[in-house]
């Protein structure tokens, strides 16, 4: 139910609403079917973890998009963490995964994207179908430096009650009850990363102060990166005596325990000067380690590969290619051993940009190496055609299937490549790689539009540019946007009366700002002749209803307009910096803007040449919280009809170009808002909203202009964070929304007339 408001002048010259009357709105639920809009990968998969004994049981972790389990029957990845809601969004970055070697049903996730946020151990007894949670005091950094290092979480193969976790700043932690509770392992040395090499003696200390990472700042605090139990040193039913740990420091960095983790010693004669990032134990008892000068992934300028035989305490440098022997500085990112043929070892270089990274394979425990990424290497891009324009990079993990020596997988900054003929390399034949990302969607979408003509969905995506989707269930055959490619497409708009004319803005590299337009629904793009003279980032962009005027507010700049596709620019008089401008969908002369800092709503009736504040005024938000969560949306096909959605005041509706607004009293928070096809028998478009209604957070739909609401997601489909909500103007009930790392999701009414793409 809407509230009528009258305006009362305050001494501060601002106005507030005073409610005249209110009735609670109805909030109920309706079942939906949710699916990913298929792009294929798109983000950094930081680890692939096989169960050592269960056939084809493997897990993948990502830096911001949660965890996945491989479904071998359906040949696709199944997301495991979509049940996490917005308040737990920091848990969507997975620091480490540990399957229980003795129980294929049990798996543990170390969850925490940034060390400034909450962290938890998520434990499952059914391969991740359901989880129990333990909040932990030690911090994690699933999207921080060294995020592909690992694995730092491990389950004792002889006693599944015992787990160890190596933290970034807070030392070593132990659980003796399958991850339910955790205690600091005080016997582990408290090292400073700047310390060159402490004495190789046991350190029993009760000092629990976090020291790993100290002196390097947050970006370098990587800590204990890998823990490995030597299962052969123990027997089932008892704690494994021998445990090994690698620490990301150029000083003494490799430690062992002979008493199940009670005390620890530095391993003698170990190499120093570089940071270990991966540690694996071969079935024949040999350890293999890869090193980098930096923890990665942004930089790595040196590295090495070593093996260690604990029986003889001998170290051997088996580095295939020394940096910078190939003409450029690089490191080594990962190592794996064939469980069925322990002398077969594979390693990857890291940050070897020219011509590309190398994948090395040895069948004699590193005595000799073959570089298997060759000119005749075969790459199958069919499942995600956009990858054909990308060279695999950030090879931070490589894994040989322990029960299938021919299958090898490695990760990149945009997904997973898999080979099923790896042993062909041993006889000189080429290795074939396929992009194995079916079901794994890890992107951060920055903009979504669904025009009434052309592609059903057009998306702007961080790090991947963007896509046009006619079929939501297939990665577009054209790949990314044809024409100019951007690192990020940050905003999109279409002309309300000419919907095949599109505009987008983005960045090339880290700083170069661009915008492009299309007159054919995105089939072809042409860059604007120039950029506005104000601002230093992509910012937001709008297109008049007849596509004659572009208004661009570059980040940190003032709004500017052009009527000749960027040949010349003019300032939008009356607006301050940083304001997003929105075009009316019918009248090409009308534009709108909301200024949360001044508490004012602005309207232009002369094609954005000048703006004037309307009579509707709001309490100013100097902390900019309103700005961060405020959306102005113009109703399709209705002149002067507007919606203002905000985190602080909910949802407001104007039918007079913003001269006044009515508040929908049931909506407490509106983080994102969109409109879609009207319900059968109705004229007004369907409303979609991500926020809080009636005290319930979620994703909602209204068929009657906000009089009544349906919650359309449920507790198992929360995706960590929902933003950029858009309805489809051609399919009733269909909603699209962006996530903070799970790509674009689309939802259809369960058992409705349309479930797939038509």
Topology of this protein?
Elements: E1 2-3, E2 5-9, E3 15-19, E4 26-29, E5 32-36, E6 45-50, E7 58-62, E8 67-71, E9 76-79, E10 94-100, E11 103-111, E12 120-124, E13 132-135, E14 153-155, E15 163-166, E16 172-175, E17 183-184, E18 224-229, E19 243-247, E20 254-257, E21 265-266, E22 275-281, E23 287-292, E24 303-309, E25 314-317, E26 331-337, E27 345-350, E28 359-362, E29 370-371, E30 378-380, E31 398-400, E32 408-412, E33 415-419, E34 432-435, E35 445-449, E36 457-461, E37 465-469, E38 488-495, E39 498-508, E40 512-518, E41 526-527, E42 540-543, E43 550-553, E44 559-562, E45 570-571, E46 581-583, E47 591-595, E48 600-604, E49 612-617, H1 625-628, E50 631-634, E51 642-646, E52 650-654, E53 662-664, E54 667-676, E55 686-693, E56 696-702, E57 708-711, E58 722-727, E59 735-739, E60 744-749
Parallel strand pairs: 4-57, 30-34
Antiparallel strand pairs: 1-53, 2-3, 5-60, 6-7, 7-8, 8-9, 10-11, 11-12, 12-13, 14-15, 15-16, 16-17, 18-19, 19-20, 20-21, 22-23, 23-24, 24-25, 26-27, 27-28, 28-29, 31-32, 32-33, 33-34, 35-36, 36-37, 38-39, 39-40, 40-41, 42-43, 43-44, 44-45, 46-47, 47-48, 48-49, 50-51, 51-52, 52-53, 54-55, 55-56, ...
């Amino acid at each position: 139910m809407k509230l009528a408001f009258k305006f009362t002048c305050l001494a501060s010259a601002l106005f507030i609403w005073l409610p005249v009357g209110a009735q609670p709105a109805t909030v109920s639920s309706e079942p939906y079917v949710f699916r990913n809009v298929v792009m294929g990968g798109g983000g950094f998969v930081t680890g692939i973890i096989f169960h050592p004994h269960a056939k084809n049981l493997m897990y993948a972790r990502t830096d911001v998009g949660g965890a996945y389990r491989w479904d071998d029957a359906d040949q696709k990845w199944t997301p495991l963490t979509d049940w996490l809601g917005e308040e737990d969004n920091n848990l969507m970055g997975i620091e480490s995964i540990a399957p229980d070697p003795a129980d294929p049903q049990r798996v543990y996730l170390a969850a925490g994207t940034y060390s400034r946020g909450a962290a938890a151990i998520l434990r499952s007894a059914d391969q991740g179908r359901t989880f129990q949670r333990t909040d932990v005091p030690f911090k994690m950094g699933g999207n921080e430096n060294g995020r592909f290092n690992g694995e730092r979480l491990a389950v004792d193969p002889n006693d599944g009650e015992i787990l160890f976790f190596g933290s970034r700043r807070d030392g070593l932690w132990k659980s003796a009850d399958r991850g339910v509770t955790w205690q600091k392992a005080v016997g582990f040395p408290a090292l400073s990363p700047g310390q060159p090499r402490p004495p190789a003696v046991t350190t029993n200390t009760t000092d629990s102060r976090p020291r790993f990472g100290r002196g390097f700042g947050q970006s370098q605090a990587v800590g204990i990166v890998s823990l490995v139990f030597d299962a052969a040193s123990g027997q089932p039913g008892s704690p494994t005596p021998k445990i090994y740990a690698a620490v990301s420091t150029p000083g003494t960095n490799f430690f062992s325990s002979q008493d199940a983790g009670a005390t620890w010693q530095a391993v003698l004669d170990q190499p120093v000067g570089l940071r270990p990032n991966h540690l694996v134990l071969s079935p024949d008892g040999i350890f293999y380690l890869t090193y980098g000068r930096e923890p990665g992934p942004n930089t790595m300028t040196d590295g090495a590969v070593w093996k260690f035989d604990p029986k003889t305490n001998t170290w051997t440098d088996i580095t295939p290619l020394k940096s910078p022997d190939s003409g450029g500085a690089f490191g080594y990112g990962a190592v794996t051993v064939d469980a069925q043929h322990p002398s077969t070892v594979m390693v990857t270089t890291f940050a070897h940009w020219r011509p590309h990274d190398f994948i090395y394979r040895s069948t004699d425990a590193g005595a000799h190496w073959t570089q298997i990424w060759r000119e005749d290497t075969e790459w199958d891009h069919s499942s995600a055609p956009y990858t054909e324009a990308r060279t695999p990079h950030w090879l931070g993990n490589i894994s040989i299937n322990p029960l299938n020596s021919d299958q090898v997988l490695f990760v990149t900054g945009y997904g997973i490549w898999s080979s099923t003929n790896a042993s062909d390399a041993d006889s000189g034949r080429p290795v074939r790689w396929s992009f194995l990302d079916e079901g794994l969607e890890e992107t951060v979408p920055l903009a979504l539009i669904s025009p009434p003509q052309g592609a059903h969905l057009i998306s702007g995506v961080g790090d991947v540019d963007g896509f046009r989707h006619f079929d939501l269930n297939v990665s577009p055959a054209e790949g990314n946007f044809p024409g100019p490619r951007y690192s990020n497409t940050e905003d999109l708009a279409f002309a309300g009366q000419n919907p095949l004319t599109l505009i987008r803005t983005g960045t090339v590299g880290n700083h170069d700002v661009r915008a492009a337009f299309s007159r054919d629904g995105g089939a072809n793009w042409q860059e604007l002749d120039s950029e506005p003279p104000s601002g230093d980032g992509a910012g937001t962009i709008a297109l008049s209803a007849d596509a004659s005027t572009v208004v661009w507010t570059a980040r940190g700049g003032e709004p500017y307009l052009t009527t000749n596709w960027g040949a010349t620019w003019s300032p939008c008089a009356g607006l301050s910096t940083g304001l997003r401008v929105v075009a009316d969908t019918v009248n090409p002369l009308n534009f709108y803007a909301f200024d949360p800092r001044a508490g004012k709503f602005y309207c232009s009736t002369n094609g954005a040449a000048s703006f004037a504040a309307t009579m509707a005024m709001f309490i100013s938000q100097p902390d900019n919280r309103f700005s961060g969560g405020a959306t102005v949306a113009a109703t399709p096909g209705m002149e002067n009809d507007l919606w203002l959605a905000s985190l602080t005041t909910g949802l407001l509706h104007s039918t007079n170009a913003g001269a006044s607004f009515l508040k929908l009293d049931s909506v407490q928070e509106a983080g994102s808002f969109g409109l879609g096809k009207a319900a059968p028998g109705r004229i007004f478009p369907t409303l979609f909203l991500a926020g809080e209604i009636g005290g319930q957070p979620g994703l909602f739909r209204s068929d009657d202009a906000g009089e009544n609401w349906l919650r359309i997601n449920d507790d198992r489909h929360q995706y960590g964070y929902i933003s950029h909500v858009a309805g489809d103007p051609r399919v009733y009930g269909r909603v699209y929304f962006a996530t903070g790392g799970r790509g674009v999701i689309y939802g259809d009414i369960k058992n409705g007339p349309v479930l797939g793409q038509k």
